[in-house]
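[step 3/7] inverse_fold.run input=structure_tokens len=293
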């Protein structure tokens, strides 16, 4: 399975902060926002990843992440010329995806939870068997989100965008697993009234085919869509609290790479020493040294 991070757009809901910098380069507490979706794909065992961004920002992502070899993964880059919708990611990434299944992670979504790795593994297996997997995150006020209704077998029945009378209390976060059919589906959907290739249109095709499955995120999982200043602040505060209270880091991509066997203990230590003057670097060094005991 391949992975795509969509880190494009102008981030207008965060103006004036994002007038000169891509949203996914902004910090969520102590690390760039893009580390969070990148760690999500790595937790899913995905090692070939395409980062899609604007032509103005792409070099900054290349400077930040390189080719991924330090993390034992492969990172490629592509440009989205205009904000033509989330589903365009599959058309831009067609050659990259090839004949594989694919996971799309939106660059501004933050997930955290003890069961997250298991949830990702289950969803990946489901998509590799055929069809698509979206997520349902239980929320207090579903009228503010895209809402999915599903049956007892977790097959989607309906998807509605900000419904006045929701049929469920499960919102749909920005993380999606698809079989290879998604590329042709994305090519043939009709642009929406705002001229974009909507991810909802892709999901509706799988829904009509009864091949859209829902993996639920219940108690113990946390999700932030960091599209506005308040959500960015809340996500940062949450990460600060978790790291301070529990002593381990959220979305530490070096730690994920080591735990997944992508890099060795020696490589982990080297990465930590490159940042040894920071608390982040000291944390990585401590992980490597603990493994040596």
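[step 3/7] decode complete -> sequence:
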């Amino acid at each position: 399975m391949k992975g795509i991070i969509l880190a494009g757009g102008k981030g207008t809901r965060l103006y004036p902060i994002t007038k000169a910098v891509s949203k996914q380069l902004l910090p969520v507490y102590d690390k760039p926002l893009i580390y969070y979706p990148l760690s999500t794909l790595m937790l899913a065992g995905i090692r070939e990843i395409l980062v899609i961004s604007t032509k103005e920002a792409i070099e900054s992502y290349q400077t930040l992440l390189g080719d991924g070899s330090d993390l034992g993964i492969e990172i490629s880059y592509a440009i989205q010329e205009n904000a033509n919708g989330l589903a365009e990611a599959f058309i831009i990434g067609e050659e990259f995806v090839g004949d594989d299944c694919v996971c799309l992670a939106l660059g501004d979504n933050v997930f955290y939870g003890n069961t997250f790795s298991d949830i990702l593994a289950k969803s990946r297996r489901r998509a590799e068997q055929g069809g698509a997997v979206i997520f349902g995150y239980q929320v207090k006020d579903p009228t503010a989100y895209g809402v999915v209704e599903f049956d007892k077998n977790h097959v989607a029945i309906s998807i509605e965008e900000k419904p006045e009378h929701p049929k469920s209390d499960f919102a749909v976060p920005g993380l999606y697993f698809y079989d290879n059919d998604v590329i042709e589906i994305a090519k043939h959907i009709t642009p929406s009234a705002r001229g974009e290739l909507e991810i909802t249109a892709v999901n509706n095709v799988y829904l009509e085919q009864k091949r859209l499955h829902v993996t639920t995120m219940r108690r113990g999982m946390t999700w932030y869509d960091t599209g506005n200043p308040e959500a960015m602040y809340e996500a940062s505060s949450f990460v600060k609290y978790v790291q301070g209270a529990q002593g381990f880091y959220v979305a530490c991509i070096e730690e994920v790479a080591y735990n997944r066997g992508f890099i060795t203990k020696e490589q982990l230590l080297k990465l930590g020493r490159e940042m040894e003057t920071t608390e982040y670097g000291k944390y990585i060094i401590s992980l490597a040294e603990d493994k040596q005991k």
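[step 4/7] annotate
The radius of gyration is 19 Å.
Residues 229-246 form the longest helix (18 residues).
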